[in-house]
Amino acid sequence: MKKLAIIGGLGAASTIAQAVIDAEGYPSAEYKFCGYINDKDGKDRIQGHDVLGGLNDIARLIEEDYYIINTIYKVDGQISRVKLFHELNVPRERLAIFVHPKAFVAPNVELNFGCIIMPNATISSGVKFGLNCRVMSGAMVGHDNDVADHSFFAANSTIGSHNIIETATYFGLNSTVGGKLNIGRYSVVGMGSVITKDVEEYSIMAGNPAKHLRFVKDKPKEI
């Protein structure tokens, strides 16, 4: 199996790590989780697994034949985190595409480098994902959605069909999005919210039906 390192720590990284470990028991397993890439927590081990190095060690780890998953995102800080990821210069072909065996992904779905599909997620036909998208446990992405880079679908979120989902959007736990909508870049759909209309870029939306609460803190000033 291919050696896998995950950028991050407790939270999304450790959740994905456990899913990869579980998948290692299946005949189709492609990756073996070896440890974390972490500068922040100041630890040698996280939940019993090695910290292999920090962000400055990524080039070395790639030379050592590791594949990489990135999880260092932050609501209200996505712009800087996406910029940071690109500055790491991880070769696209070294970004792991991980699909847990208990997920359903239609045969014609397009998964880009770095995409993660967690257990019990459902991806319907005709969906196209950009780079580094993450679909967490129990989330459902309906047919013919166009999903841009760095988008995140929290557990049990539900996305209808024929939506255009722009860069680095975040869908909270149990949120619901209708169909034929445009969800603007760097926008946030709050936990349990229901989206029935287009969402302006950089917006934080909440409620049922969802309303605009404010713009994200790192929205560019010129916009």
Q: Which descriptors apply to this entry?
A:
13% helix; 23 strands; 8-stranded mixed β-sheet; 6-stranded parallel β-sheet; alpha/beta; UDP N-Acetylglucosamine Acyltransferase, domain 1; Rossmann fold; 223 residues
- Given as residue ranges, the uncertain stretches (5+ residues, pLDDT < 50) are none
**Can you say what the CATH homologous superfamily of the largest domain is?**
Hexapeptide repeat proteins
* Shape descriptor: globular
* CATH architectural designation of the largest domain: 3 Solenoid
Radius of gyration: 17 Å
- Our count of domains comes out at 2
Q: Which sequence of strands runs across the widest sheet?
A: 6-8-11-14-17-20-22-23
Which fold name corresponds to the CATH topology of the largest domain?
A: UDP N-Acetylglucosamine Acyltransferase, domain 1
Q: Main sheet? A: 8 strands, mixed
Head-to-tail CA distance between termini: 46 Å
Number of helices: 3
Tell me the fraction of residues in β-strands, as a range: 25-35%
CATH class of the largest domain: Mainly Beta
Coarse structural class = alpha/beta
Number of strands: 23
* Succession of helices and strands: EHEEEHEHEEEEEEEEEEEEEEEEEE
List the quaternary state of the chains: single chain
Taking all residues together, what is the mean pLDDT?
96
Q: What is the helical fraction, as a range of percent?
A: 10-25%
